[in-house]
Amino acid sequence: VQLQASGGGLVQPGGSLRLSCATSGFTMDDYAMGWFRQAPGKERELVASISWNGGSTNYADPVKGRFTISRDNAKNTVYLQMDSLKPDDTAVYYCGADIGALFRNIIKYWGQGTLVTVSS
Length: 120
Description:
120 residues; mainly beta; 7-stranded mixed beta sheet; 4-stranded antiparallel beta sheet; 50% strand
């Protein structure tokens, strides 16, 4: 099982990034997916989640209206479009596969992180 996150980098405040999480070794269609982040000195937090077919999405309050989670089951990939980025969004971002089709924040598979730095 692999979850390969990519797309992080350095961006100025107000800018955008699109993270991707390419999965393999399991049937992604069967699982809800989530994006998480961990800032220095802080605990890992849930950013956004999406059900198995994309029919249900949820966002943490700090990112509502700015981030969009989506998935392409044919490509076994989940995405996180991040717009209007703020310095507080600086963190290592992780993707995770939930234990079932609807997101319950019980992660079965974790990916490695990708670093997002928002700074001028």
